[in-house]
Amino acid sequence: MKLLKAYRSSVILLAAVMIGGLIGAIVGPKAALVEPLGELFLNLMFMIIVPLVFFSVTSAIGNMVSMKRLGKIMFAVFIVFTSTALLTAVISLAGALIMNPTKGIDTTAIQSLMANVPENGQSTEQVSLFKQLVNTFTVSDFINLFSRKNMLQLIVFSIGFGASIALVKEKAQPLAKLLEAGTSVMMKLVDIIMYYAPIGLGCYFAAIIGQLGPQILQGYLKTFVLYLILTVICYFGLFTLYAFIAGGRDGIKSFWKNAATPSITALATCSSAACIPVNLEYVKKMGVPKDIAETVIPLGANTHKDGSVIGGVLKIVFLFGLFGYNMTDINSILSIIFTAFLVGAVMGAIPGGGLIGEMLIISIYGFPIEVLPIIAVISTIIDAPATLLNSTGNTVCSMMITRLVEGSRSKAKVLSQESGVA
Question: Global pTM?
């Protein structure tokens, strides 16, 4: 019953998309008749994205005052979380370049479909690298922040605003509570709009498939297969490597002896937050001290999501393939890795981070805003394996953090756990 509840919304959305796609494939271009119903859903989401980003990002950063821990632990957390997320991004990009999920799709169809979409307002004039960086992270006027075209700039402002609240501390608590309340209200509004999502997405995909043909469905299938392959590589390969780094052969033995229950819980709940109690119990059996476990696991559930990093890479690559962008030059490779890291590792700490991350991809690369549902479907189909990597990855990372903090003493803890002494 719990399993059905965890997957209910995903199953309903997938069923709506499949039904819409089937209708579009049968009816053809005439399916454009229901496109306004899909556009209604898009417009509802576009209306709330700016206040959602501002409230959620600012509130998340502003309330970080409650997460004070020993500096040594936090430094180790930063090193491990950042390095594992970047390594995951590199591996997933390599996999996407080898097995391009959009290969064979007629990209001219979607390009012509989006040709009548108004420009996003960004200038095509050639500018210097430094000027481009300035334009990427800032705007010339405060009012320009409140446009979905300037998503990254809004996030930068919100992070700075939230950090200022955290530094002011007690004096800013009324403002912090207001922002937290605003976040709760916006998330509830998202929940309300999502009741319409099956109809909106179903109609939108009926129109898309009717005009593009069923080729894009093949792209989704390839994306899902690629994600499963990357999941196997990361789960069995990288996690074993991380356990070895943490404690050698004993670390590997300790991790895999205790990994089953956290992994099954992740697959069953599709929620990193719901896995926190189980992960706390089992990382202690892996030899992780109580103070490190109770810092790393809750923090990792919010800020360390390697599965979401892979999802970010595949979403970017999917759009690059559909629009015929070059993804093999060094600039594209670095930008994909950085953006996926930002989307998966940073946005994961923010309520509604999935939607914000997708909007961030669109904003950074200047894709038409109408492609949002196209990559939103990817989030739905990879939900279960992504949660597996997100949640279970935190357990093995906590072992590596223990090794950094306590050095060789962490091996002794693993051995004592194995023998049942501790």
Answer: 0.73
